[in-house]
Specification:
single chain; four-stranded mixed β-sheet; isomerase; Enoyl-CoA_hydra/iso; peroxisome; ECH/Chromodomain_protein
Length: 261
């Protein structure tokens, strides 16, 4: 199992459970999380979903070894839903989604916060969008959602730099709502989740719909732009150098790439 599911007080807790891989999303975990979100959306006894990770990581993003295989192995077999299915499920999720960032969050482990209604973060956790260090484009409508969430310049730094963002920096820019000591993170996130879950589900859904409906067209357009850029860059010289360097345990060297890369 790559995902733990627990129900209590109308809160469904989803715990990403690949701790040895810092909860990086392989195809199995993408599929399991997608199906869990869809099931929670349809379950009349679930009011709120709380998403967190097991171990030292919240999520290290897409599993880079699988990403390398996808780019280089013609026989690679993708999952049923994959990354696109997870983002579809996040866009469509009608109930409050609370993220408790317990450890490192890279890639989708950061951009998923654009879909969170509330985000809590451990004081020792860190976030990173490593797109430029991987030679690829943004994902999950982050090019649209992050500027709205944190402002253009903070979003530009997060998306362009591929640098680590501390918990305090994430709180100051508005990427997360609360920063907690590690032992307080889940109790505090759960306390807020259960407070919301005590409200009428129909009202929670109505509030979220009225807040997110105006964003849908922007999200769709951003995903189209990002996907086109990702297809163009995936498997290109910069991306292959980044993935090869990761597989070989070294830092990528982009200075020797052809002009324009």
């Amino acid at each position: 199992m790559t995902l733990q599911i627990d129900d209590r007080a109308r809160v469904r807790t989803l715990t990403l459970d690949r701790p040895d891989a810092l909860n990086a999303f392989n195809e199995e975990l993408y599929d399991a999380t997608t199906e869990a979100l869809r099931a929670a959306a349809a379950d009349p006894d679930v009011a709120v979903v709380l998403l967190t990770g097991n171990g030292r990581g919240f999520s290290a993003g897409t599993d880079l070894l699988e990403m390398h295989a996808r780019a280089t192995d013609p026989a690679f077999v993708p999952g049923k839903h994959g990354f696109v299915g997870l983002v579809d499920a996040l866009v469509d999720f009608p109930k409050p989604l609370i993220c408790a960032v317990n450890g490192v969050g890279l890639g989708i482990g950061t951009t998923i916060l654009g879909f969170a209604d509330l985000a809590f973060m451990s004081a020792t956790a860190r976030l990173k969008c490593p797109f430029t260090s991987l030679g690829v484009a943004p994902e999950a409508a982050s090019s649209y959602l992050l500027p709205r969430l944190v402002g253009r310049q903070d979003a530009a730094w997060v998306l362009l730099s591929a640098e680590w963002i501390s918990a305090e920096e994430a709180r100051e820019m508005g990427l997360v709502w609360r920063v907690c000591e590690p032992d307080d993170l889940l109790p505090e996130a759960r306390r807020h989740a259960e407070l919301l879950a005590a409200r009428p589900i129909s009202s929670l859904v109505a509030v979220k719909r009225t807040m997110t409906e105006p964003l849908r067209e922007g999200i769709r357009a951003a995903r189209d732009r990002e996907n086109a850029a990702f297809v163009e860059l995936m498997g290109g010289p910069a991306n292959l150098e980044a993935l090869t360097a990761f597989a070989e345990g070294r830092e990528p060297d982009f200075t020797r790439l052809p002009a324009g890369w």
